[in-house]
Write a structure and sequence with these properties.
Elements (H helix, E strand, L loop, with lengths): L1 H14 L9 H10 L8 E12 L2 E10 L5 E10 L4 E9 L11 E5 L2 E10 L4 E9 L8 E5 L1
Antiparallel strand pairs: 1-2, 2-6, 3-4, 3-7, 5-6, 7-8
Length: 149
């Protein structure tokens, strides 16, 4: 598609009889690199764990490493009780927004590694987690899903 966009004017000029037309090489290179300026946004590593804090209560923590911090706008996390199939948390976190989080939630980032405190939940024997990312063009990655206890 991009090749057609770049070279269509050249073909039109050639058809019209213009034979001595030159395009600077940097213009061709620029047009090929503009569409690939953002790396493919993906989750490279993730873990959700529930830490016991009291009888029948756990604190949820999500650790995720992403491929590209310049192209990420949001992180969506869904936590469910896998046995009852009840959603306990469904939240979209704005990338690098640490202020204004609900009580009990935290957000910390070091490089590409992000740790999000999810708050307190009632204990469950089996959990299901889903995580996905939204890029700066508002396109979501597919859900990364896993079961844990």
């Amino acid at each position: 598609m991009i090749i057609k966009k770049v070279f269509s004017p050249l073909f039109e000029l050639a058809i019209q009889g213009v034979t001595n037309f030159k395009i600077p090489m940097f213009a061709i290179i620029l047009s090929f690199t503009m569409n690939s300026s953002f790396a493919q946004l993906s989750i490279t590593n993730s873990e959700v764990r529930m830490v016991d804090i009291a009888t029948n209560q756990v604190n949820g923590i999500c650790a995720v490493t992403i491929s590209d911090t310049t192209n990420c706008s949001s992180i969506a996390i869904e936590i469910s009780d896998a046995l009852n199939n009840t959603v306990e948390l469904n939240k979209e976190f704005i990338f690098d927004q640490v202020a204004g989080l609900p009580n009990g939630m935290t957000y910390n980032r070091e490089g590409n590694a992000i740790e999000i405190g999810l708050g307190i939940f009632q204990s469950a024997s089996i959990w299901k987690a889903r995580i996905r990312l939204k890029n700066s063009s508002n396109v979501w990655t597919t859900w990364q899903e896993f079961i844990f206890n």
